[in-house]
Amino acid sequence: DADEAAQAAAGLSRSKRRATLYAAQRPLEAAVDELRSSRLAELLASIDAADAADAPLLTLLFDKAFGGAAGLQLLRSAAVQEALRATALVHADDAIRSFALVHCKRLAAAAADVSLLGASGVLQQIAVLVSDASLGVSQRAVGFFVACAASAGALRAVLDHAPSRTALLAPCAAAAADPAGGVPALALRTLALFGEIAAIGDAQCAMCEESGALDLALAAWRGSDELVRLNALEVFALLARVPRGLHWLEAHGVVDGLLAQARGAEADGDAPMAEVQRPSVYHCLAELLEAGGDAAADKALSTGGLLGPLWRQLEPAGGGARDAALAAVRGAACSRRGCILVLRQTASGGAADPLAKLLRSSDARAKVGAFAAAAQLCSSCARFAADGEVASVQPALRALIAAVSPSAGTAPGDALAALVALPAEELRVAALRLLLGLAQLEWGALALARCEGLLHLLLHAGAVLTPDELREKWGALALARCEGLLHLLLHAGAVLTPDELRDKHALASALLKSTAAADVIGAGAATVRQLREYVAAGPFAAQSKAEARPEGPLTL
Asked: Coil, helix or strand for 513?
């Protein structure tokens, strides 16, 4: 009876709280309706008199008045558009210009709304704000046009509106009119905007090319200002992400120029600006290699002679472009031809190969980059497994993966599993991705299936003990083969992010797809049953608490 009374009281209390909240909500809804109707003119008039101290309150009122579908419809009204054009977007205070742009961005998705902004003069004023003295305001204006570019129709509406197009391209036109004056900072800001827009898709890239904005990138690249050349390199890296941009780079000789600079940087290694530009050059080449497929890999790695300079950057004394060079190696490994050429290069170096050394480096950044390259090599070998030439270089991949092991008694799977338990998120993600890449290969899945630590980590969540503590608990028990890797699959020694949990689940799924791997674990074993239950439950399923595990593989 007492329990029933307590439950009834709790239910009554909840009902009272809910009623109180509803009662408080009704006046608020009425106030918002009033803001949108009888007090709208007063709200819009208050913009002009506002200052920095009023900006937070004004921002709150605008959020309430223009939130939701009703507020969006109100934003389209002539009165609001005029207030935005004549007052909010030209206000002396940065914060007010910024929040006006935030609300304008809500109309950036549809071509009809963009045309409406053009007809009211708002669009032209936003184009002017791309060159605003306040960087925060400028970034929000850039964000508006990038949001427009998500739809090819909305971007077309922007570029078809002549006053807005002229205002947007004004800094580029000024730079073109005075070539001797170099490329000013405002023109570089506009150039970066069009580079970001062009990277969205082929249609957007074609419109950027048609507008003439990309011509400034060539002028910056061919100019004498070495710092401005860095801005051009960033734009080229964006263009390389879409086929149309890649074709544009080829047609204008940019790819040949990049390869020549990558080779020439070896001779000018002591030049300060060559040192500064080298990472940007390799980063741009990484994007080209990833998007360009076999043709780009052949041109860059074979004909262009890029492999030698890349591998020299991986050496300890190679210079400051190691991370960018690793990104280029990973980009090359995305294609069939690039994968073959990279693995042949690693095979020629044997145990002394610099990429193999970086896989067990004490430098976390180097290890992350090397893991990403190795994971891509595994994925590409799995994708092109039926290709005889790819099959012929898989022994080189096995040798490269073996270099992950810090010692002869530790399997690569165990070494990677131990890294997943570390607090360093970047290293955990890289290790999980490499494990997933391995699991896509038949021989990789077999090797992982022999790693008990991996299966252990996948299916449970448990505490971490040192090897000495484990010996004290279990005596002289030696876990079979690769303890660390099985522990990774059956347990979760670290708190994983949602993306890491998805990678972990994908790894378990890949192992189960290999019948040979399941046989190695034991087709009727409880571990296989638990793995199947885990895969069926999904990446976010709660896992059982595991018994204590060693923090590293146990060697007896």
From this structure: helix
**Nearest 10 degrees: CA dihedral of 460, 463, 464, 465?**
-120
CA angle 52, 55, 56 (to 5 degrees): 125
CA distance 466 to 460: 18
Radius of gyration, alpha carbons of the chain = 30
Q: How many CA atoms lie within 13 A of 305 on its CB side?
A: 9
* Dihedral sign for Cα atoms in the order 115, 117, 121, 126: negative
Report the alpha-carbon distance of residue 432 to residue 504 in Å, rounded.
7
Closest CA to 293 of 259, 339, 344, 238: 339
What CA–CA distance (Å, rounded) separates 352 from 350?
5
Contacts of 548 (CB under 8 A, 6+ apart): 462, 463, 464, 465, 469, 470, 473
Would the pTM count as exceeding 0.85? no
Dmax (CA) of the chain = 92
At 545, which helix (H) or strand (E)? strand 544-550
Cα distance between residue 18 and residue 9, in whole Å: 14
What beta strand segments (E) does 168-270 contain?
none
Cα(159)–Cα(191) distance, integer angstroms = 15
Contact between 445 and 514 (Cβ < 8 Å): yes
Give the percent of the chain with pLDDT over 70. 79
pLDDT digits (tens, 9 = 90+) for 528-545: 777 788 888 888 777 766
- The residues near 163 (Cβ < 8 Å, ≥ 6 apart) are 118, 124
Which residue's entry shows tokens 């910024």?
A: 98
Alpha carbon 240 to its chain's center = 16
Residue with tokens 């077309």: 156
pLDDT, tens only, 354-363: 999 999 888 8
